[in-house]
Amino acid sequence: GNSVTQMEGPVTLSEEAFLTINCTYTATGYPSLFWYVQYPGEGLQLLLKATKADDKGSNKGFEATYRKETTSFHLEKGSVQVSDSAVYFCALSERSSNTGKLIFGQGTTLQVKP
Amino acid sequence: DSGVTQTPKHLITATGQRVTLRCSPRSGDLSVYWYQQSLDQGLQFLIQYYNGEERAKGNILERFSAQQFPDLHSELNLSSLELGDSALYFCASSVVGGGLLNTEAFFGQGTRLTVV
């Protein structure tokens, strides 16, 4: 079945450091890929998405590129801020499916220290 | 604010009891999804309704059930509660029922259920 695997956290970085959170997926079809962010005490918010191979999703300085050959969708940011501290979830949805359900990775906690 | 409203925000109940969680989707969204977030299982898809009909089922226990009403709000009923049911339950909504190609799912803030 379909699945998503994320690097384990927590990830602790200093402000302005470079961030990479690895995400790989297994899918029988051709999925859309997403990164969601969960700030403390809040629900999930869509951070970025990509719907086909080689697409790059970007938002708020975060980027991720859909790599079909390596089945990956790694999240990167060049310079993190304290306000980026949150839990990040990689997820997939089957594009041609009759359901919009999301399959999530286990989440990666990011803590950014001043 | 995502536009998805979940009530209550917190719920504490005893084992063996039954509770109902409520979700109001964003205006215009026809699909409602329920997810469970727990420390050991992570974020798991439970069930989806689209325009009043069940569309997809995930890892939902038989003790749990859901429905979507004509006004499109949804309720998740959890019965014979066990300690292991303690979790954060999220509702999400989307315009479409199928793959999220040109749209997205919007999440509520969740209901934190504690079973004691």
Q: Care to give the gist of this entry?
A:
The complex is a heterodimer of chains A (114) and B (116). Chain A is mainly β and 114 residues long.
Structural features, described:
- The complex is a heterodimer of chains A (114) and B (116).
- In chain A, 0% of the residues lie in helices and 51% in strands.
- Chain A is built from no helices and twelve strands.
- The N and C termini of chain A lie far apart (41 Å).
- In chain A, strands 2, 5, 6, 10, 11 and 12 form a six-stranded mixed β-sheet that branches.
- In chain B, strands 2, 4, 5, 6, 9, 10 and 11 form a seven-stranded mixed β-sheet that branches.
- The N and C termini of chain B lie far apart (31 Å).
- The chains are: A mainly beta (114), B mainly beta (116).
- The interface between A and B is medium-sized, with 27 and 31 residues.
Q: How many distinct beta strands of chain B?
A: 11
Q: Beta-sheet strand percentage of chain A? A: over 45%
Shape of chain A: globular
Count of individual helical segments of chain A? 0
Would you identify the regions of chain B where 5 or more consecutive residues have pLDDT less than 50? none
Taking the sheet with the most strands of chain B, its summary is: 7 strands, mixed
**Overall pLDDT of chain B:** 94
Share of β-strand residues of chain B? over 45%
Helix content of chain A: under 10%
Rounded mean pLDDT score of chain A:
93
Largest sheet of chain A: 6 strands, mixed
Poorly predicted runs of chain A:
none
Greatest chain-chain interface? Answer: A-B, 27 and 31 residues
Based on DSSP secondary structure assignment, what is the total number of beta strands of chain A? Answer: 12
Encode the helix/strand succession of chain A as letters. EEEEEEEEEEEE
